[in-house]
Structure formats: C-alpha cells, structure tokens
Give the backbone structure.
Amino acid sequence: MAFVVVIHLNPNVQGLMPDILARCTAMPVVQITDGQSLQVNCVYVTPPGHSLSWSASRELDGID
C-alpha cells in the first residue's frame, strides 16, 4: 500500500509536511515529482502550489 497526501499550500512557502511525516513513520516520505511511479510502503506528498493526477498504471503526473 502507498499513501498520497495532497495538501494545498501557498507556492511561495516551503512545505514542511515531508519532514513532519517522516518523524511519524518508518516508511520513506518523498515529495512528488512529475512522472514518478508509486511504490509500495511509501508516503508521497504534493509540493506546495501544485496539483496532482495519476494514471491507472500508478504513475503520478499532472504536477503543475
């Protein structure tokens, strides 16, 4: 199972959510990049000021 955390933050503010979540789980916590594939046992966080979509193939895209 993978977890995707979608938060809505001002694009001019550094997002601290990956750091905060990393303190609460043993799973890797990463900020999503365009075209990144979902991996099991990972937590993914949207970057500030971006939206997200993903495909049936578990690929994250639409980071804009």
Remarks:
- The first strand starts at residue 3 and ends at 5.
